[in-house]
Amino acid sequence: MLLSLMSLVLLVGVTVAVPAQEKRIHRHSDLSDRDHDDATGFQYDHEAFLGKEEARTFDQLTPDESKDKLGKIVERIDTDKDGFVSHGELHQWIKHRQRRYIEENVDKHWKEYDQNKDGRVGWEEYKNTTYGFYLDEEFDDVDDKSSYKSMLTRDERRFRTADRDGDGIATREEFTAFLHPEEYDHMKGVVVQETLEDIDKNGDGKIDLNEYIGDMFTADSGESEPDWVRTEKTHFTEFRDVNKDGFLDASEVSQWILPGEIDHADNEARHLIHETDTDKDDKITKKEILSNWNMFVGSQATNYGEDLTKRHDEL
Predict the structure, then answer these.
(1) Looking at residues 308-315, what average pLDDT do you find?
(2) How many Å apart are CA 247 and CA 211, to the nearest integer?
(3) Cβ contacts of 110 within 8 Å, gap of 6 or more
(4) Cα–Cα distance, 223 to 89 (Å, whole number)
(5) In this predicted model, what pLDDT tens digit does every residue of 250-304 receive, in sequence order?
(6) Which of 75, 123, 258, 298 could bond 302 through an S-S bridge, CB–CB 3.0 to 4.6 Å?
(7) At a CB cut-off of 8 Å and minimum separation 6, what does 32 contact?
(8) Which long-range contacts (CB under 8 A, 24 or more apart) does 50-59 make?
């Protein structure tokens, strides 16, 4: 009885151990999930400039505290110390802030999977840590063992693709590609393949309209179809299904989830400079930035204002 209880505990532990990379990547992530509409607020700009977590921190500060902290950030962005923030400097800063969340996620998993602390993660280390107990014969009667075997196959394929030198051991960069394949050109094929496998329910190697919509929406009994579903159907037939054969093949899925290289950080840098560069010299000073501080960072005041707007809309 005690052995059975211990096995159950281990089984639950393994379930928790399965990392977040199993979530399918639909498209390159934007800088923020917020709408980019300066007429209604600057939350998009805050998250783009600071990163999502840091933007939340600023929302707890007073306006004076936010401006003081922003001034110190500006001095860091001005890497050549000429008194100006150029487009290139702002572009690099935004890219750095957006890259940070990936690095933090990799740090978390790296410590978990580098069992022998040699600065590398081998496939066997990863497999045994994540799936070890599910592979034992004593768990043959576990209901979801087949799904875990499928996940194991998928993980191994992704790991082998990330492992550029094929030695079965991931460096930190290779492990980052494994956890975040959408960030690497050589991993794009894996992202497309995983998406196809997830949505293609009948296993014919392509996605029809019902599978496409079914991945996003399943109507409850008697529920009418929302407008956004009708819009997605139009997108499928008019834009996503390029060759108009009624299906999305691998090439069309790739165009859907991995569209052309849009540099969101570059666009945001240009946007912030355009809105704050009062003398139109294509670079901004610390004074110009602090004069428009609430476009770059939030505070308790701006957060309170947004809360009032939300309450008004709800009323």
Answers:
(1) 41
(2) 10
(3) 121, 172, 175
(4) 51
(5) 999 998 888 666 788 999 999 999 999 999 999 999 999 999 999 999 998 866 4
(6) 298
(7) 43, 44, 46, 47, 48, 52
(8) 50/97, 50/296, 50/297, 51/97, 51/98, 51/100, 51/101, 52/101, 53/101, 54/97, 55/297, 55/298, 58/297, 58/298, 58/299, 59/298, 59/299, 59/300, 59/302, 59/303
